[in-house]
Structures are given as structure tokens and as C-alpha cells.
Write a structure and sequence with these properties.
The protein has 61 residues and is mainly α. The protein contains one helix and no strands. Keywords: Membrane, Transmembrane, Transmembrane helix.
Length: 61
């Protein structure tokens, strides 16, 4: 019976550490995706404003 309790504790510990690894990876992956998305948004916004915006030919003040 004691070996069964130790096995259950091992599984709980192993699962919680694996879950934390998955959460850490997901958080870092999420932040990378957000940063890349923001960078792409800004890049395409600048390209649009410089080359395709209807007011591109009018000088700004």
C-alpha cells in the first residue's frame, strides 16, 4: 500500500511539473506570436501609408 501512495505522489508531481512546462512554453509562444503580429502590423501600416494611402501625395504640415 505504501508503494502505491508513493507512486501516486510521483505521478502528481510529474504531471504538475509537465503542466508547468507546457504553460511556460505556451506563455512564451504566445508572447512571441503577439510580438511578431505587432511587428507585422506596424510594418504593413507604414507600407500602406507611404505607398497606397489616398493622401500620400499631399505634404504634411
Amino acid at each position: 500500500m505504501a508503494s502505491m501512495i508513493m507512486f501516486d505522489e510521483f505521478i502528481d508531481t510529474e504531471l504538475s511539473s509537465n503542466t508547468m512546462r507546457i504553460m511556460e512554453f505556451s506563455t512564451s509562444a504566445f508572447l512571441k506570436v503577439v510580438a511578431m503580429g505587432l511587428g507585422q502590423y506596424l510594418f504593413f501600416k507604414v507600407i500602406y501609408n507611404v505607398f497606397f494611402h489616398p493622401l500620400r501625395n499631399y505634404p504634411s504640415p
